[in-house]
Amino acid sequence: MAVLFKLLTVSIVIACFICSGQAQCSLSNVIIKQSNTGVWIHGKPEIQATINSACPCQQYNVTFDVAGFQTTEEVDPNILNSNGLVYNGNALPKADEEGLKFKYAWDSLFLFKPISSQIACS
Ligand SMILES: *[C@@H]1O[C@H](CO)[C@@H](O)[C@H](O)[C@H]1NC(C)=O
Q1: Biggest CA-to-CA distance, the chain
Q2: pLDDT at 20 over 70
Q3: Chain centroid to CA 104: how far?
Q4: Which helix (H) or strand (E) holds 113?
Q5: Which atom of ligand 1 has the smallest separation from the CA of 61?
Q6: Which of 6, 50, 96, 97 is deepest in the core (most CB within 10 A)?
Q7: Residue ranges of the alpha helices (H) in the chain?
Q8: Ligand 1 pocket, 118 CB below 6 A?
Q9: So what's the pLDDT on residue 61?
Q10: pLDDT tens per residue, range 49-96
């Protein structure tokens, strides 16, 4: 009986480690950096955006709110499609890895707001 109770306690503790690890990751772990390239595309300044995830687990199926997004340069749909899906739903590179890059061109930076993502911890 005592052994069973101990086992139960240990599994609850382990389960909570896992759940708290996942709880640490959220949409705020999606990092998007933007900078002007100095190039003009169809009369608009070109901007390069780089996307990473600061989550130590896999953060995938990330979507941005792209309502109102405009660009005079075609954006690579494998990185950001017209529905705001990033990288075809694949996991984002980690913070210390090379980020996903895409370019667009408009008068001002567009504030890409992540609206959904999924987390998988191994
Ligand atoms: C990705 O997210 C969307 C909505 O946020 C969901 O409907 C879909 O099932 C997810 N895809 C995968 C592969 O988990």
Answers
A1: 76
A2: no
A3: 18
A4: strand 113-120
A5: 1
A6: 50
A7: 2-23
A8: yes
A9: 98
A10: 999 999 999 999 999 999 999 999 999 999 999 999 999 999 999 999
- Kindly state the tokens that stand for 18: 């896992």
Q: Judge if the beta carbon of residue 59 lies within 6 A of ligand 1.
A: no
pLDDT per residue as tens digits for the range 34-61: 999 999 999 999 999 999 999 999 999 9
The length of the chain in residues reads 122
Burial class (CB in 10 A: 0-12, 13-18, 19+), 86: buried
Cβ distance 84 to 65 under 8 Å? Answer: yes
pTM: 0.81
- Two tokens at 82? 């017209």
Report the alpha-carbon angle 64-65-66, nearest 5.
Answer: 100
Spatial separation of the C-alpha atoms in residues 7 and 5, rounded to whole Å: 5
Q: What is the dihedral sign for C-alpha 40, 41, 45, 48?
A: negative
